[in-house]
Design goal:
Blueprint lengths: L4 E5 L3 H12 L3 E6 L10 E4 L1 H9 L17 E3 L5 E3 L5 H6 L4 E4 H10 L6 E3 L3 E5 L7 E5 L2 E5 L1 E4 L6 H6 L6 E14 L9 E4 L3 E7 L4 E9 L12 H9 L6 H6 L7 E8 L7 E2 L2 E3 L2 H4 L8 H15 L5 H30 L4 H13 L2 H7 L1 H4 L20 E2 L16
Parallel strand pairs: 1-2, 1-11, 2-7, 4-13, 11-18
Antiparallel strand pairs: 3-6, 4-5, 6-19, 8-9, 9-10, 12-15, 12-16, 13-14, 14-15, 17-18
């Protein structure tokens, strides 16, 4: 019996998850990653219960690589330190099954890569085009290292996906989301224990996530104009100090500990409109390539993981084209809805008029925590399709888990939006 071959464009979270899921189903997989090493650039990423459930369905047990630090919720504060809402400790694991985790992106990438045979991931190789004639039995994948033949092509090539542009040349593409973000990891030595929380100001936000190794991951966002329409700060460290140094403790102390060279900065982009579908013939788009969204719900990476598991499930069918059409049907409505929810949260954060921000804060304080949790049910209650039984896949990539929380899931994972 012929072993089918899949080419995955992109060795990020979605691409590697897809490769694991297909490999478990007997496919031969080639992952083409344009970077020369899998560094996992970034800081923290929250793995919500829906993502953990998807990973578990392909044998990735987070207990083996994410440590045992659980996530209960994210508190919201004002710049003076007043709490708008506090997380309800222990409620999310009971409500949604697997307790949420947070890991450094690098550890997640390492865990996924280690779960694959050594010859699957090809670094320094980019996919430039796919020729998928309807009258042939496979697709011709053009790469920087030569051509490949594939029964299916999964494009997980990021927010500026080359293959998305090829499949949908008339789509309007990306639009600026009106925000930019900064990220960094600093030492937490000598500081009091910090809860995971976000602070919402007037068009600005600062998030704190304590890591299990004693470090603290923080992120900040601010309203911005599209690049080119105004001046960009010459020094991001100085810009963070200017915006946030007068906010509540421990924000000033965190900025004092910041190495300017360690600040990551990204403008936020999202798709200007949903794609009409996520597939064309033997090619399917995953993650940011399919539905680039703002990071306000912390679901960018989680949705990429879901995409990968669902695509591999449908590709058990002998008819690849029909399988990828079924993948679109299973994923399009859900990801479009989550993208819209994330955009609405971003609009709340971007409010800058004093009256508008006061009304927003009042509404947050007045909203019962039970109601907030119910709003997340359709996101976090998602169940993966059943996977075939096979030996468990796992990787020991360390236990440098973070300690964060997800009452209102708004953790900013900028590394997925670049």
């Amino acid at each position: 019996m012929r072993v089918r071959h899949a080419v995955v464009a992109g060795g990020g979270i979605g691409g590697l998850t897809a490769a694991i899921a297909l490999h478990r189903r007997g496919w031969r997989v080639t992952v083409c990653e344009r970077a020369t090493e899998l560094t996992g650039i970034g800081a923290g990423i929250a793995l919500a219960p829906n993502a953990l459930r998807a990973l578990g369905s392909i044998g990735m047990n987070p207990d083996l690589w994410a440590g045992d630090t659980l996530l209960d919720g994210v508190g919201l504060r004002r710049p003076d330190g007043t709490w708008l809402s506090r997380p309800d400790a222990g409620t999310l694991p009971d409500r949604y099954g697997p307790p949420a985790r947070a890991v450094h992106r690098g550890f997640l990438i390492a865990a996924l890569a280690a779960a694959l045979p050594a010859d699957v991931v090809h670094l320094g190789v980019s996919v430039t085009a796919v020729d998928d004639a309807a009258d042939t039995g496979d697709a011709l994948v053009r790469t920087s290292a030569g051509d490949l033949r594939a029964d299916a092509v999964l494009a997980a090539d990021g927010i500026r996906s080359v293959l998305r542009g090829q499949l949908f040349p008339h789509h309007p593409g990306l639009r600026h989301a009106g925000e930019a973000g900064w990220r960094a990891v600093v030492s937490g030595a000598g500081l009091p224990a910090q809860p995971a929380a976000e602070t919402w100001g007037r068009g600005e936000r600062f998030g704190i996530v304590p890591l299990a190794d004693g470090r603290i991951y923080f992120f900040a966002t601010a309203r911005t104009s599209p690049p080119g329409s105004g001046t960009c700060p010459a020094g991001h460290h100085a810009e963070l100090v200017r915006r946030f140094a007068a906010w509540h403790d421990p924000i000033p102390a965190l900025l004092d500990r910041l190495d300017p060279a360690g600040v990551l900065h990204h403008e936020f982009y999202e798709l200007a409109a949903p794609l009409p579908r996520f597939h064309a013939g033997r090619v399917a788009l995953l993650g940011d390539a399919a539905h680039a969204m703002t990071p306000n719900m912390g679901q960018g990476g989680c949705q990429a993981i879901e995409d990968a598991v669902v695509a591999a499930h449908h590709l058990q069918s002998d008819d690849v084209r029909a399988a990828l059409a079924a993948y679109t049907k299973a994923r399009h409505r859900r990801t479009t809805r989550i993208s819209r929810q994330s955009r609405r949260i971003g609009a709340l954060v971007q409010l800058s008029h004093p009256l508008a921000t006061s009304l927003r804060n009042l509404a947050v304080r007045a909203t019962p925590s039970a109601l907030s949790r119910r709003a997340l049910d359709t996101v976090l209650d998602w169940q993966p399709p059943l996977a075939p039984s096979s030996p468990s896949v796992h990787a020991d990539a360390g236990t440098n888990a973070t300690t964060t929380t997800t009452n209102v899931v708004v953790n900013v994972n900028v590394e997925e939006n670049k």
